[in-house]
Predict the structure.
Amino acid sequence: MQQLYLTPDEKKALADWLASDETAENAMAFAQLQGYLFALICAPEPLDVEVWVKQAVGDDLSQLSQDHLFALMALHNEMSEQVFDTGFQLPDYFKVAHSLSPQMLVQSEAQLWSLGFAQGAKEYTTALLKSDELPEEFATTFSFAYHCLAFLAEPDKLAASATKQGHELAQYCHHMLTLMADFSLGFAELVEAAALASGFFQDDDWQDN
């Protein structure tokens, strides 16, 4: 079956539409949407399309045309193939993020991606970590992976996190950005393993989802 993808120009058009007056004030920025979709694609259970589309456009579907819905679905499809088939890579703006100061980083697209990821992954991550069946060592790894990918979601906590880890803020941010590339590549497998280990799913259940 032919896969559906957006061209760079179509992605820019989608980003411009999300940021325009045609969408609700709380519609996601494009980078935030990318992080959010990544979290949903890695989730142990799929989220209904209407639910995540409403989240993306700020709960207002009145201005959602078929073209815009197609663009959202195509982006989801493209990212899904990256996660499960070709290998996921963080968007190119993360390459620039490494050279940014902490002050600029918290105003960047990388911060928006991290925010979107946290919005999409926080609920199921919390549920999985609450399981008594999840081995402690595995839970520690899974928790760290989530917090690494979401570390920019709460900029006001960055300094405290850096101090706790014994790093200068700039050093801490660079270290976490480096780890994000590795954790994003294997996060879907980590979620699957956590879901199975926690007893939330059996192997057959996972394959049915």
Q: What stands out?
A: The longest helix spans residues 169-197. Residues 203-209 have pLDDT under 50 and may be disordered.
